[in-house]
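Technical appendix A lists one of the benchmark inputs used to test multi-chain prediction within the project. The record comprises two sequence entries:
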Amino acid sequence: MSYQYTRPLAILIEELAKLPGIGPKTAQRLALYILNISKEEANILARSIVNAKEKIKKCRICYNLTDQDVCEICQDNARQRDVLCVVETVRDLMAVEKTGGYKGLYHVLQGAISPLDGIEPEHLTIEQLISRLKTEGIKEVILTTNPNIEGEVTAAYIARLIRPFNIKTTRIAYGVPIGGDLEFADEVTLTQALLGRQVFKNEK
Amino acid sequence: MSRLFRTEGIILKSIKLNEADKIVTIFTKDYGKIKGIVKGVRKTRSQFGSSMENLTIIKLLAYKGKNLITISQSEIINSFFSQSKDLFRYGLAIHCSKIIDKLSAEEDPNPKLYELFQNLLFLLNDEQNPTLLVESFKWKLLTILGFQPELKKCVYCHNLAKKDEYYIFDIPRGGVSCFNCLNGTGRYQIKITYYLLRLLQRILVVDLIDIHNKSLSPIILSELSKIADLFLNFHFEIENRSKYFLKSCYLKK
């Protein structure tokens, strides 16, 4: 007969194994590590999970994650309030925010249109985006959805809805990644990069 | 299938795996539908770039391990990316890829079906009347798979009244019947005109590339797609989801 974990340990391993990217072996290692740490540390970990789960919700305006009614970015008056960056997920927002180069507002769609997976425009926060455009005096919308087919379709769909508002609508550039190798760039990306070429600016 | 193989294929769908990988379903020319792992494809600097996007036609080099197929190299033949801004064509194409996915078994090669799907994707770009093209594609696909509708003889009396004003398309029976052989129409018994019957007959014989008809009325087109959708729904339980998608795109216009 195979070895069986004692009941509480088995439950812990089972729960940990539910996390993404964690297999049974890793779950076992994490569980044994948790058993080794002090009771306070374990409590902090447990509480932080429950705390985050209870307090974090979606911002009423932009659907970013926050522990308040309106997120920090939407509240920040130092930010440019007439530029709106439309992203698919909170992870994309974090990626853009990490660049530090963008100082406007965001709108998180909660996904991309994908009829194959049954995700249609109604499932996203597109309607809310449109009502923001009606009230907030936005001057530019930057479509920052993923540069794949679903992202393109979503961008095209939103762009069409925005058209009647006469708001400047831009799409992030397509091109070859810095540090990449032209030889390995695929034809579509390279074509887009050539089409989107810019006048070379020397240092000031 | 040898361990290392090269072929051509069309990407049908993909699911995300781990941090940056994907499992893609590819409809290949020589090996039928396969599922393969593509490592690192979601990274910005991946050599695969846009080649693993839905509806892309690619040349690929893959390796078959004990359980899984790993895609190791790819080269784009035709990309759908530039067309994806056209929501209407995208909706149609994605619906076709779904039908192919549902009706093909894994590792069951069907070169004829491959050629048909490839032609569709090439033609969809320039076609004036994408709806007619896609409806024709559906009937040709059914014919290749052995579900060719009976359009020459009545499915009940085995004769067909010549040049009658109306006929009935009996979906469960898979063909057309004289107007007199059936007692009325039903959910799956659709009344069609002589013109529509002729159109269906023509679709089955003419190549996809030669099917043009700019003068078709939208009513005929919508009847045409209604019959095909009901047929696919009745016999294979395929629902035309992209119809909802297209509707939601065009109602809000």
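Chain B has a mean pLDDT of 81. The interface with chain A takes residues 13, 18-19, 44-45, 47-51, 53-55, 76, 79-82, 84-87, 90-91, 94-95, 97-98, 241-242, 244-245, 248-249, 252-253 of chain B (CB under 8 Å). Comparable benchmark entries are summarised in Table A2.
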